[in-house]
Design brief:
This protein has helices at residues 3-22, 36-47, 72-77, 107-116; strands at 25-33, 49-57, 62-68, 83-87, 100-103, 120-128, 131-137, 143-148. By secondary structure, the protein is α+β, with helices and mostly antiparallel strands. Strand 2 and strand 3 (62-68) form a beta hairpin.
Length: 151
């Protein structure tokens, strides 16, 4: 193994340990689609995934959660990060909603850290069902949805 590979591997291991210690985890990856049903069907057929639930399912907006597994039971038991297929209006850009959803242990502290480190708050902390949610941007303008489940 070359020295740069060893240094890179040590750096990756340190990053993984830090992420585990912070209590932050990837909650989901959002894929926007003008036809959420068709895109969910695509992921199911191509990647062997199955729908696990629909947190929102109206005529105007859908969120279809899918995960690895050839059946609903296997997908619900999967430990991988789910994909959320969400409705995007036909005239909206693909970046209309955050793609990265992070589960954080302290949403207020995280929002303050975002602002202190060059990010911006797009939408303040609000409650949705039993969750607290905030929308932020990193310094380059990428949107991130922060979610905290009350303990």
């Amino acid at each position: 193994m070359t020295w740069w590979k060893a240094v890179t591997m040590c750096g990756l291991a340190a990053t993984m340990v830090t992420a585990q210690e912070s209590g932050i985890r990837v909650r989901g990856i959002r894929v926007l689609a003008t036809d959420a049903e068709a895109v969910a069907n695509f992921y199911e057929k191509v990647f062997g995934m199955s729908e696990t639930r629909r947190p929102v399912n109206t005529d105007r907006f859908k969120e279809i959660m899918i995960n690895s597994g050839s059946s609903v039971e296997l997908a619900k038991a999967a430990t991988g990060t789910p994909i959320i297929i969400a409705t995007r209006p036909k005239d909206a850009p693909t970046s209309a909603m955050p793609s990265l959803i992070l589960d954080v242990p302290d949403i207020e502290k995280t929002v303050e850290l975002v602002k202190a480190n060059g990010g911006t708050l797009m939408r303040p902390i609000s409650k949705f069902e039993n969750l607290q949610v905030a929308m932020v941007k990193d310094p380059d303008g990428n949107q991130i949805e922060l979610v905290m489940t009350p303990k």
